Amino acid sequence: MAHITEATKKEVKDIVYQFFADECEVNVATLNDSTNIIRDIDGDSLMFLELIEVFKKKYNLDIELKTIGKYAVKHPVETIGQLIDMQMLIIENENKLLEFDK
Asked: Angle at which helices 65-74 and 80-93 pack, to 10 degrees?
């Protein structure tokens, strides 16, 4: 589990924005926290899985995809801002993510 700092928040946001700009072939300046990943930039759920792998490696996270899936069913992600918020919870809580949800 990691402590989330302002630097971590900025880093995660920058990575997410750049990831979607590259994958969806849009200008990063056109993205914001309200951007709907599927409707606005033609993203898909597989991109979320790719991002999880990026963050698992970057922050050496110990979390199972099954745990993230169970959490995501209760807390669906549609916008970039929601995805960033969920990623912060994953970094901070790892496999204890579901305990946080109780």
From this structure: 130
Task: State residue 101's pLDDT score.
Answer: 65
How many Å apart are CA 50 and CA 57, to the nearest integer? 11
- Check if the beta carbon of residue 11 is closer than 8 Å to that of residue 86: no
pLDDT tens, position by position, 66-87: 999 899 899 999 999 999 999 9
Q: For residue 18, what are the domain limits?
A: 6-100
Q: Is residue 72 included in any domain, yes or no?
A: yes
Question: What global pTM score does this model have?
Answer: 0.90
Taking the C-alpha atoms of residue 30 and residue 99, their distance in angstroms, rounded to an integer, is 36
CATH of the domain at 50: 1.10.1200.10
